[in-house]
């Protein structure tokens, strides 16, 4: 807990400070932090910083090390802390959700190729195509590049339940020609950056095509979508 009054840190008498009393009586378990016994200071890792600014800060003594317990000030401190705590809760919940999603995706990434191989062995048929299966199972946004006879197709398939606007940058070693979509090209020292940011509704697909002469090297980068919700197929 870091306490400030008019930009001056309050170093001593933390236990006698109104700020400390307010922090202790908040139920931090509701906001995703551990709080032994359901009261008192929460366990970290977390930093709670409270700054009280006023022309007349009520201190407990002339040493100005702690704030006095004035109900109006305590109420304002509590409201401010709870507002920040709600944002903290949202952040922690999203982080936990992304961690679970990442673990599930890692497991599926290992299992699906093995399943495809076994299915081919049992049925005596060719190994089934599974490149897009992971994106469909995880409800991800899939970004795929297909190159055929000098024609490059960037395909975005949105398997999620909301509209996504990925920011796709395809770095090409030769100059691209004939872009058919709403994309721009930037030339930087012999590399061409094809920038494309389509809005793709849930369950929809967007495509961008262009042509290249001769052999070309590609490197696609995607921003605007969490890594855990993205499947890139080169």
From TrEMBL:
User: Record keywords: Isomerase included?
Assistant: yes
For this protein, what is the EC number? 5.6.2.2
Question: What InterPro entries does the entry give?
Answer: Ribosomal_Su5_D2-typ_SF, Ribsml_uS5_D2-typ_fold_subgr, Top6b_C, TopoVI_B_transducer
DNA topoisomerase VI subunit B transducer domain ranges (all copies):
1-104
GO-annotated molecular function: DNA topoisomerase type II (double strand cut, ATP-hydrolyzing) activity
Q: For this UniProt entry, which segments traverse the membrane? A: none
Q: Which domain of life is it from?
A: Archaea
**Domain called DNA topoisomerase VI subunit B C-terminal: residue spans:** 125-231
- Signal peptide start and end residues: none
Coiled coil (UniProt feature) = 74-101
Q: What is one Pfam family matched by this protein?
A: Top6b_C
Q: What class of enzyme is it?
A: isomerase
Keywords attached to this entry? Coiled coil, Isomerase
> What name appears for this protein in its UniProt entry?
DNA topoisomerase VI subunit B
Q: Which organism is it from?
A: Halobium palmae
